[in-house]
Amino acid sequence: MQISKLFPEIITFMVLFSSINSLQAKSFPNSECTECHNEKGFSIPLGKHGELGKKELYVDNQFFKGSVHGNQQCTDCHNDIDKVPHRKSALGSVDCISCHEKLDDKDSVASKRRNSLFGGSPPRRVIAYTQEYQLSAHNDTQIKNNASCATCHTAHYVYPSEDKRSSTYRLKSPELCGSCHEKALKEYRNSMHGAALKTPWKGDSATCADCHSAHQISDLTKLPAHRVITEGCGECHEDELDGYMSSPHGQLAWHGDKDAPRCVNCHDSHTITHVDDPESPVNPANKVKTCQKCHANANANFALYHPHGTTNNFKKYPELWIIAKGMGALVILVLVFFYLHSVLWFWREKKERPVIYQHSDSRSYPVRIKPEKKHSGIYFQRFPWYWRINHWMLALSLMFLVFTGMVVMYPNTTWAMTLVPLLGGMETLNNLHHWAGLIFMLAIFGHAAVVLYKIFTSKEKFDWFGPNSLLPRMKDWEDMKGQFRWYFGKGPQPRFDRWTYWEKFDYWAVYWGAFVIGTSGILLWFAESIGRYIPGWIFNVATIAHGLEAFLAVLTLFVVHFFNNHFRPAKFPLDTVMFTGVWDMEELKEERPEEYERLKASGELDKRIVKGPSKRWNIISHILGFTLLGIGLILLIMVVNGFIDHGLF
C-alpha cells in the first residue's frame, strides 16, 4: 500500500535522473579529436561569408602532450561535447578556475615572488594563483575583451613559466602584455628596462610580470597594486627597497597614504631611465623639481634627503651608519644591563621568599601557600593627586605613541596591515600620533616646570643632592653595588631612601627619550618648512633616532619598568600606588627603610599619614592598573613580532 503511494514519485525521480545523466559529457579518446584538430590548416571561416578571416583550430598534438595538461583528455576541459564531430554551437567556454580550485597541496609551481617583504618564498600552490586571478582586474567581467586564462597561457600549450616554450616565460611577457597594453609596451621598449632585454650580456632586467606580478593585477590607483609593484621593484633593487621601506615615504605609502610618494612617483613607470640620463626625474639636475611634486617649498637643501638611505652602507650613507650603530650599541647595553638586573632580582627575591607548602587532612599532597604581605592599616602618602594625573597622562600618551608609531615602523606586519584600515587609515593615526606627542611633551615638561617652580618658590633651601632630589648622587652608586652583592648573596640588600637608583634611571631616561623623540618628531612633522634651511639627510637621521629611541622605550618601560614596579615577587601582580597614591606603612618600611626612619626621626612621618583608599577606589585602581599593564604587554608583543620579522631598519 505504501509502495503504491510512492510509485509516482519514484517514476518522476527516474525520469529526472535519466535526463540529468543524458546531459553529462561523454568521454572520447583524444585520438578522435586529433583526427581533425591535428591537421595543419584546419580552421573555420569567421563572419557570414568568411569576410572576417579564419579561426585556427589546429592543435599540435606533440606540443600539447609536452605541456602540463598533456595527460588530460580533451573532454576534461571541453566537457559539453557529447559527440564527434561536433558543431561550433556545441562548444562552450572552458572553465579553468573550477578545476584549479580542486588541486591539492602537491600541485605547486616555483615562484620568484616573495610572500613577505624581506624573505623568499617556497613553491606556491597553483590554487593560490587561481585565487589571486579571481580577485584581479583581469577577471573583471565588466571589462570588454578582458584577459582570460587562455589569453596569457594559450588554450593548449601551457608550460611552466620558467620554460622557454611557455607563452608566459618572463622574457616574453612584454610582447604578451603589449598585445593589449600597446601604449605601455611602446614606453617600455624605450625605457632602461626594455632596452636591457636587447643586451642580455649586460645582465638581467625587469619585465612586466616582475613588477606587476602574473596574477595579482589590480587597479594601479589602489593599495594592493602599489604593494605588489613595490615588492616587485625590490626583487632586483633590494637595498633600495629596504631603505625606502625604512623611510616615512615607504612606510606611509604602504598603508595607503595618498600624499606619500611611491616608486613610480619619483622614477616613473614604463618610461624609467637611468639616473645619469638627463631626462631622468631623479637625475641630480631634476631632483628638486621631482621633490616639488609633493613638497612645494623644496629646494636644493631639501633635495639632499636620501629616499633610499640605509644604515648598512657606510660608504654611501656614513652619517646614517654612524647614528644607527651608535644608538644600536646604546640600546644593546641598556637592555643587557637591565634585563640581567631584572633576572637576578627575580632570582634573589624568589630565594628569599620561598614557597611554603602545608599538608592538609583533605588532600594527599601538600598545598602551596602564598606568603601574605604585612598590613598595618596605616597609610603613607607617597604621591599627591597632581603627580598621579601627570603619570596617567604620560602612560596613556606613551601607549598611543607606541601603537600609532609602530604600525608605521613595521608597516608590512600582519597586525599593522589589519589594524590601520580598521582605525580609519594613516591620516587618522597620524593625527592621533601628533596629539599624543603633544600630550606626552606637556606631561614631561609640565612636570619639570612644576618641580622647578616648587623648588625656587619654597622658603626652605632645596638640597640638590639630598634624599628628596632625583639628581644622581654617590649613594646611588653605592646602592647599586650593594644591590648586586645582595643578588649573589654577598651582603644584605641596601637600605633605600625616597628615590632608588633604578627610579632615577627611569626618570632621566624619560627626559632623554623626550629630547630625542621630541626633537626628531618635530623635525619629521614640520619637514617641509624646516627642510629649506637644513640638509635633507638630517631627516634620515631623525627617522633613525626616532625609531631606535621608541624601540628602546618599549623594551625598557614594558619590561624593566613593569618588572621593577609590578612583576617582581614582592610586588606581583600589581602596585596600585600610582592610582591610590598611598603605601601601607609596612610597605614603606620594607621598600624604603631609610626614608621611613628619616621621616620618623624628623617628625615628618605623622604629617604624611592619610586615610586609605575606599574599597570601591581600590577595585577601580586594580581594574585600571591591570588594563594598562595588559595594553602595554600587547604592544610589547607587537613590537617584538615586528622586530623578529624585520629587524629595526
Characterise the protein shown here:
The structure is a single chain. Helices cover 54% and strands 4% of the residues. The protein is mostly helical. The chain folds into 3 domains: 25-92, no CATH class; 96-220, no CATH class; 322-646, Transmembrane di-heme cytochromes, Chain C (Fumarate Reductase Cytochrome B subunit), CATH 1.20.950.20. The chain has a 3-stranded antiparallel beta sheet with strand order 8-7-9. A hairpin with an 8-residue loop joins β1 (43-45) and β2 (54-56). The radius of gyration is 36 Å and the shape is elongated. Residues 10-24 and 110-122 have low confidence and may be disordered.
Show the helix and strand layout.
Layout: H1 2-23, H2 30-37, E1 43-45, E2 54-56, H3 61-65, H4 74-77, H5 96-100, E3 108-109, E4 124-125, H6 126-134, H7 149-153, H8 173-178, H9 182-189, H10 192-196, H11 208-212, H12 223-236, H13 238-245, H14 248-254, H15 263-267, H16 287-291, H17 318-352, E5 356-358, E6 367-369, E7 379-381, H18 385-409, H19 414-422, H20 426-457, H21 474-487, H22 501-525, H23 527-530, H24 537-567, H25 577-580, E8 582-584, H26 585-591, H27 593-602, E9 609-610, H28 615-646
Antiparallel strand pairs: 1-2, 3-4, 5-6, 7-8, 7-9
Helix pairs in contact: 12-13, 17-24, 18-20, 18-28, 20-22, 22-24, 24-28, 26-27
